[in-house]
Automatic annotation (TrEMBL):
<protein>
    <recommendedName>
        <fullName>Agenet domain-containing protein</fullName>
    </recommendedName>
</protein>
<feature type="domain" description="Agenet">
    <location>
        <begin position="3"/>
        <end position="73"/>
    </location>
</feature>
<dbReference type="Pfam" id="PF05641">
    <property type="entry name" value="Agenet"/>
</dbReference>
<feature type="domain" description="Agenet">
    <location>
        <begin position="75"/>
        <end position="131"/>
    </location>
</feature>
<dbReference type="InterPro" id="IPR014002">
    <property type="entry name" value="Agenet_dom_plant"/>
</dbReference>
<dbReference type="InterPro" id="IPR008395">
    <property type="entry name" value="Agenet-like_dom"/>
</dbReference>
Length: 153
């Protein structure tokens, strides 16, 4: 079952760009899709580094869109949870590797390999959009191996 995106739909757009692959950015659909393409305007991405520049508008394939995920306020976050972390204006999939003081967490990102300290308010449980439904992903064992290899270098 495909989701029916229309003009005005609030969505997240998956990046396929090198170095940003897998991150999702919040946007609004500007026109009804035509030939499985639609135009979106991003909430946080700009056309340039100039603080007065307009928000980035882009034509994207509908396969890169998903609806906004359900809110997960109040859900507990713990070590080894698969999460999305709001970082660099987008939602990046990662894994909690350490719980720190003051409601902060160390999050590991696989692509590109990186670790960041993220506040609890900038975390949500990772969900995947498949067949018109939100579902929790299977545990990703490669994160554990990646963390080990990342720390070796």
């Amino acid at each position: 079952m495909a989701y029916n995106f229309r003009a005005g739909s609030r969505v997240e757009v998956r990046s396929d760009e090198e170095g940003f692959r897998g991150a999702y950015y919040v946007a609004t659909v500007l026109e009804d899709p035509k030939f499985e393409q639609c135009i979106v305007v991003y909430d946080q991405l700009s056309e340039s580094e100039d603080p007065n520049s307009r928000n980035l508008t882009e034509k994207v394939h509908v396969s890169r869109l998903r609806p906004l995920p359900p809110l997960s306020k109040g859900e507990m976050i713990k070590v080894h949870d698969n999460v999305d972390a709001y970082y660099n204006d987008g939602w990046w999939p990662g894994e909690i590797v350490e719980s720190l003081q003051d409601g902060k967490f160390l999050v590991y990102f696989a692509d590109p390999p990186d670790q960041q300290v993220v506040e609890r308010n900038d975390l949500r449980h990772h969900l995947e959009w498949a067949n018109g439904k939100w579902k929790k992903p299977r545990r990703k064992v490669f994160f554990f191996l990646s963390i080990f290899l990342f720390n070796l270098y």
